[in-house]
Design a protein that fits this description.
The complex is a heterodimer of chains A (440) and B (116). Chain A is of the alpha/beta class and 440 residues long. Chain A is built from 9 helices and 24 strands. Classes of the chains: A alpha/beta (440), B mainly alpha (116). Chains A and B meet through helix 1 and helix 9 of A and helix 1, helix 2 and helix 4 of B.
Chain lengths: 440, 116
């Protein structure tokens, strides 16, 4: 049986389908034959121990013998970010997304619990905030991105949870605080205002999901009629994939969500509950009773200062200049990128990370073995787009806006289905964790 | 690398339930299945009397399985949005029905003996 080129979610689903226990009780616990490890003394530095960094560390340990692998990350907590939406919908506690960074890392590597302070790709050296200098032969950049809260005038994280202010993507605790604000708002009703930034962002469907979840919660609490739900978008389209946009337009209309286009959040008055948006016609203010602030998202400053970023694209965001197929840096061939930090047209999701991993692994391990890597990334991105508690659309697409169907003839990508919700609720985290361990 | 591997399924299930619980569930399933085969071989026939009770337990197994899945997934019947959802729900019901009926049959055979 060959299920080649199937995304993570399909495996998870097939696993669920087989999940009575009885089916597996026949006991096919065979271990796949491990390829011989590649001998090397290469010094490999991985920046970031999140989804991309931890996973590639585990994969490289499995494939390489003698490599000196160092992983650098200052945050002791690992965050399962796809869980933030569920936390902010009151379905999971904050702890659902929190684990320790260290628990996902393999033994036999050097883990430095500090951030990178300087990256010099010419000298092939990383300096940490603690002053440790790390020379490398290969660098894997998997830092993720940073949320630029300072770009929103008047916003402060310490106000989240008060006066209807939410910030789901600031972290698990903030997501939980946002849920309390949403639940409080839904008890009374009023105007909820949502948005996305002009920059690229992680999981571009996330603010839309949260808009729908808010609508759902208002309906369940019986306050939808007394409420107004507003979704603002910086451009004309709701989503980067045209056919998905068409479907979202229909759902927005059905759910009576007021869509305002060409709106970019620039300031917020949290005590007066007024959001100010830049629009082509000048500034527009919107009063709100509940909002989820989504600020611009950019590469961490240390990466933007390193010279690894594109010089002529995403200049306000700083994503690194990698080949969109091989994820190898275009000017520094001993540098690779995994995850949100990559300057590629699509793919700032954990599902994309899943597909970045074998590509980077292949090219790096092949080179160390004296061969040339062959694998490529096609832009695969996946978003279980929740439309209410209990239903989601499994949206998967590639660089060319093709809808990728993991389950052709079974799970329609533009249908709001329970099975897609089950994948998000039950199978996704387990698959993600297996990915972190290098096993999926 | 991207070919289907049983180890990937196992890894996902280990993460879903925790390593200990997952293998405990597998062990329980193996034991019940083995016990079922044991009583069939021991008795050299299916007892229709025991099978009747096992059959009567099936709707309960189906309902319990469906309600359990709905509960742990924050779902309700109205969330079913297409044919595939109905198939999944029926599959859950079928597994619950089959699982409980085998359990009931085995329990009768082991505790009430061959003749009962």
């Amino acid at each position: 049986m060959n299920f080649s080129h199937l995304p993570t979610s399909r495996r998870a689903f097939l696993g669920m389908a087989a999940g009575s226990g009885l089916a597996l009780a026949a006991g096919t616990g065979s271990t796949p034959v491990q390829a011989a490890k590649t001998q090397t003394s290469a010094k490999i530095v991985i920046l970031g121990a999140g989804a991309g960094g931890a996973s590639i560390a585990n994969r490289l340990v499995d494939r390489l013998q003698g490599a000196h692998i160092t992983i650098v990350d200052g945050r002791p907590q690992h965050w399962y970010q796809p869980g933030f939406t569920l936390i902010a919908a009151g379905l999971k506690p904050a702890g659902y997304s929190i684990s320790s960074t260290e628990q996902w890392l393999p033994s036999g590597i050097n883990y430095i619990n500090e951030y990178a302070a300087e990256v010099d790709p010419d000298a092939q050296r990383v300096t940490t905030t603690g002053g440790t200098r790390l020379e490398y032969d290969y660098l894997i950049v998997a830092t993720g991105l940073v949320l630029d809260w300072d770009a929103i005038d008047g916003f402060s994280l310490d106000q989240v949870g008060q006066n209807g202010l939410g910030a789901v993507y600031a972290g698990p605790e903030y997501a939980a605080t946002t849920w309390r604000a949403l639940d409080d708002f839904a008890s009374r009703g009023g105007r909820a205002v949502f948005m996305r930034p002009t920059t690229d962002m992680k999981c571009a469907g996330a603010p839309i999901k949260y808009t729908f979840l808010t609508d759902d919660h208002l309906r369940r609490k019986g306050t939808r009629d007394a409420s107004e739900v507003v979704y603002t978008t910086p451009g004309q389209a709701l989503f980067s994939v045209p056919i998905v946009t068409e479907k979202l337009e229909l759902i927005m209309r059905r759910q009576e969500v007021d869509v305002r286009r060409h709106h970019v959040l620039k300031a917020i008055d949290t005590s007066a509950r007024i959001a100010t948006f830049a629009t082509p016609e000048g500034d527009v203010t919107l009063e709100y009773d509940f909002t989820n602030v989504v600020p611009p998202q950019r590469a961490p400053q240390v990466i933007r200062d390193s010279g690894l970023s594109w010089a002529d694209r995403w200049t306000d965001q700083g994503w690194i200049e990698v080949d969109m197929a091989t994820l190898r840096h275009k000017r520094y061939p001993n540098v690779f990128g995994i995850g949100d930090i990559n300057g590629v047209p699509k793919g700032k999701t954990a599902a994309s990370v899943k597909w970045h991993l074998p590509v980077v692994e292949d090219h790096l391990v092949s080179e160390l073995g004296g061969r040339e890597g062959t694998r490529t990334f096609n832009g695969y991105t996946s978003c279980p787009l929740i439309t209410r508690v209990g239903r989601a659309m499994l949206i998967e697409f590639d660089y060319h806006d093709n809808l990728v169907r993991s389950f052709p003839g079974l799970v329609a990508p533009l249908e709001e289905l329970w099975i897609s919700w089950l994948m998000k609720e039950v199978a996704l985290k387990a698959t993600y964790n297996a990915m972190l361990r290098g096993r999926a | 690398m991207e070919e289907f591997k049983i180890s990937t399924f196992i890894a996902v299930f280990e993460e879903m339930f925790g390593v200990a619980l997952w293998w405990l569930l597998v062990a329980v399933a193996v034991v019940i299945t083995a016990a079922y085969l044991y009583v069939l071989i021991r008795d050299r026939a299916m007892s229709m009397r025991k099978f009747l009770l096992a059959q009567l337990s099936m709707p309960f197994g189906a309902i319990i399985a469906v309600l359990f899945v709905l509960h742990i997934t924050n779902s309700q019947f109205s969330d079913l949005g297409g044919p595939v959802d109905v198939i999944v729900l029926l599959g859950v019901a079928l597994l619950g029905a089959g699982g409980l009926s085998i359990l009931v049959y085995v329990a009768q055979s082991l505790f009430r003996g061959k003749q009962a």
